[in-house]
Design goal:
The chain contains ten helices and ten strands. It is of the alpha+beta class. The strands form two sheets. A seven-stranded mixed β-sheet has the order 4-10-9-8-5-6-7, sandwiched between helices. A three-stranded antiparallel β-sheet has the order 1-3-2. This is TrmB family transcriptional regulator.
């Protein structure tokens, strides 16, 4: 428990000695410098330097006298102060960095992303910057991690359209359920994710290999346009299948299996993108 609190304080920009001194004061106060050193384990040769640093930063209070005594800023107040300071810093950063527009090179490059978490983090960022429309092709196993950002985008008026592999419920989006998610997972030996925002950027790749998952992010129109249009054509096909399934399956087999086999280059009719 104590180790966890010390670790949290480090994330709030406390040094190891500052963390120990502040926690000691939370547990018992007021304390003299000598008592704080004894209780916290901070060396006596360092304790007054550490306490002075906390006083200057406003994390503890000191009462000067013959023997100075110290008390902590209450934990709730400390957290509130840190949060306000962080928000001010982020606001200043946003104002400053918005001066730097994306260079033309951003639209010419294709950026590789490795690792499932890293891929999903990039998609989250793209979701929050979308203004008009989001197209997302995703498996139910991955959807939950993006749901809060997608919901937030929908609340600000972004049209969210999802091609779902597996049962995905999203009252904020137009969801098209693909009825062959299990078979497709086996056929492709994994799950992929395809994301397009505002016809201006895409993220696409495999997300089922953990740290070895690979995807690409780009604003290159030579990729944004065809990837986005393929997703739109998937939606066309799903609408057509919904209304004319019997006729199409009579010609091309259940779930259009004959078409998939016709255009496969492997004898097992599976995809082998993942080696």
């Amino acid at each position: 428990m104590k180790e966890n609190i010390l670790e949290i304080l480090k994330h709030l920009n406390f040094t190891e000695y500052e963390s120990k001194a502040y926690l000691a004061l939370l547990e018992e106060s007021p304390l003299t410098g000598y008592a704080a050193a004894k209780k916290s384990g901070v060396p006596r040769s360092k304790i007054y330097e550490v306490l002075e640093s906390l006083v200057i930063r406003g994390d503890i209070f000191v009462s000067y006298g013959n023997t100075p005594q110290y008390i902590p800023v209450p934990a709730k107040e400390l957290i509130k102060n840190r949060r306000l300071k962080a928000e001010e810093t982020f606001e200043q950063a946003e104002k400053y960095f918005e001066k730097f527009e994306r260079s033309a090179n951003d639209r010419e490059n294709i950026w590789n992303i490795t690792g499932r978490s890293e891929i999903l983090d990039k998609v989250k960022a793209c979701i929050l910057s979308a203004q008009k429309r989001i197209l997302l092709e995703i498996w139910k196993e991955d959807f939950k991690e993006l749901e809060p950002e997608l919901r937030q985008a929908a609340k600000k008026g972004v049209n969210v359209i999802i091609i779902a592999y597996g049962d995905i419920e999203a009252d904020f989006a137009n969801v098209y359920l693909h009825d062959r998610s299990r078979e497709i997972t086996e056929e492709y030996d994994g799950r992929w994710l395809v994301f397009s925002a505002d016809d201006s950027e895409v993220v696409a790749g495999m997300v089922s290999q953990g740290k070895d998952s690979r995807a690409a992010w780009t604003m290159h129109v030579g990729l944004v346009m065809p990837i986005t249009e393929v997703m739109i054509h998937d939606l066309y096909l799903m609408e057509i299948m919904e209304k004319h399934r019997e006729v199409l399956e009579e010609s091309f087999g259940e779930n259009l299996i004959h078409l998939r086999r016709k255009f496969s280059i492997h004898p097992d009719f599976k995809k082998h993108y993942v080696k």
